[in-house]
Design goal:
Number of strands: 18
Bound molecules: thiamine diphosphate
Number of helices: 19
Shape: globular
Helix content: 25-40%
Oligomer: single chain
Strand content: 15-25%
Largest sheet: 6 strands, parallel
Length: 538
Amino acid sequence: MSTVRETTYQVLRELGMTLIFGNPGSTELPFLRDMPSDFKYILGLHERVAAGMALGYALAQGKAAFVNLHSIASSGNGLSALVDAWYGHVPLVVTTGQQDRRQLLAEPFLASRAVETVKPYVKWAYEPLRAEDVPRVLLRGYHLAMQPPMGPVFISIPMDDWTHECPPPDSHEVRHKVSPDPVALDAMVQALDSSRNPAIVAGAQIEEDGGWKEVVALADHLQADVYQQPIAPRWTFPRRHPLFRGGLLPAQQPLANQLAEYDTVVVLGAPIFLYYAYVPGHAISPGTKLFHLTNSPQDASAALAGTSIVGNLAAAARYLRNHCQPRPGRTPTSRAESPKPKPDYPITPAYLFSVLNDVMPRSTVIAEECPSSKGDLDRFLQSDEPGSFYSVPNGILGFGLPAAVGLQLANPSRRVVCPVGDGSAQYSIQALWSAVQYEAPVIFIVLRNGDYSALKSFCDFTQVGRNVSGMDLPGIDMVKIAQGYGLAAQEVDKPEDLEPVLREAFASPKPRLITVNVAKGGEKCMGMDHSVNPPRYR
Ligand SMILES: Cc1ncc(C[n+]2csc(CCOP(=O)(O)OP(=O)(O)O)c2C)c(N)n1
């Protein structure tokens, strides 16, 4: 008879999870010993990084990645990556060690209440009742993680379980796709057929459900303007497509105003809507019909208006295209081109991104975390391929660096670039070490403005005022920090040095960090200024 440990490795192998992202401790050692040679361990020096790299890997693969944390000690450190996975619909199977069952009642050193701690942010948090259930629990966890809306599951495993005997679980498959209700879709078809000017809002779930091509075909068929969802965690529509109109603002009234000219709006795979600043108003103008297709019952239940239909986005887009009347071609009001930024000193984020856009290959994958420069990045980076852009799902900094490493490990034929704020980089800085050790040739571009510009702009936007402590970041030498982790790094100060340094980085097959001294930014707050009538917190 096999042991729980042997059977578990076999289950992981069959599920295709042979990379173990983790940070080990005593309670995991009985599992990790003598790891089979077809498995590889990817060490993160901090658990935010271990789980965050798994997050990037799973995002790129569209398949669950496996994480092994250490009791509550490291589940706490890794929690923000689990929250990212929860909001970003990223399938992760996360395990953590528990003390020996035989002494748990006496509350020994490293006893873990991790299951209770992570519960609100995982689809399932569980500690098996019997040692021999462990492989079956992993199998069940995997299927739950993969069921749309995908997300993390969390399993706590007592350290004495691994040596028990256990038969292999019977094989079992789950087909995860849920088709949307055709009767509900037919009502949408009717509305779209009688619409004069429909618009589509493209959300992250389009990529989760593999629906990129279907949504482009649907937009072409309907000749509908397309907007990206507010604060997009993924770009899910080609940026240079003539129907693309840019992003939506993350506040009620300004967003409703942006869509007011349309008589029918179809939101594909995003919440209705994701807001940041509280600017009350209609969720959608009273004269506009709102339809919502989502793979998330949670998003459907939370929507503020319209008709929500739950199901697979690719199937829904295909159905609509097959059943709606084609609309005649027209000259769309395409997105206004921003004028080319000048090589000012200090370098502006706009200039940085316009040069990066000129230099980077079209297949580049972006892992973005540069809060006050998001708008400039959005204006100047162009990308027309699926799987090209990923950003912070719920505002927790620390996403970018490890996600970039995971994305790069899963995408050896594409280059990953990580534009990151000098503040944001510090929340998961140890990812630089993993990039070097696992030869992930990410190009990290640090926007060094020496402060928390996004927070300062929020102070101005909401009239909190500037008399707030803890907003400046003097004395951080990113070159030395990177070099300390073994990463080649250089600083760029003058605009004329930017292009050659970027070209050199893309020509090299190795990871690199470029820290660019940029002008302090943040005149706008997530694209909004005072004209939107922001809330006052003073
Ligand atoms: C883990 C975490 N801590 C704090 C914050 C609050 N926060 C939001 S934006 C921001 C500033 C980030 O600074 P930086 O990366 O330098 O970007 P900049 O604002 O200068 O563009 C901070 C601290 C957060 N969102 N997440």
